[in-house]
Amino acid sequence: MCDTREEVDVDEVKLITVLAVKAGEVIAIDGVVVDGNCEVDEKTLTGGSFPVAKQVDSVVWVGTINFNAEDCVAAKMAKLVEEARNSKSKTRRFIDKFAQYYTPAVIFMPAGVAVIPLALRVHNRDHWFYLALVVLVSACLCALILSTPVATFCALTRAATAGLLIKGRVLS
Question: Which residues cross the membrane (predicted)?
Fold first, then answer.
């Protein structure tokens, strides 16, 4: 095996040929790492959101991308998208703090409306039970608490698929 360092078409690659794949390049054929280490973006095959570390004797697959965090612009962009996705806006932090206190209150209020009349031996128990259910349904702000992170994630994903990179926090 000689080191010619020449570029060849994929159709011309023979078994036991050593190929150099630079940072940011697509891996042209299935193979095994024989020298060096890197991170490979395998999301086209596995759906994973993080690059997979590869060392000597690791298997690499056709169509995946060789990432090198120091050299590759695509790796830096992926890292920025992941950071933006994981960062919390002021609105989301407020909703999380609000939910920390509001959610237990929503559980205890209807329980109190149902249990206190039972403890006082009120005659119309079904009325108080239904009233407790009305309080529970009326006070439940699950849509508000769940909608903020979902809307943020959807906006970031839509922007990324449209080719727009959002750095930092999305909402102020």
Answer: 101-122, 128-156
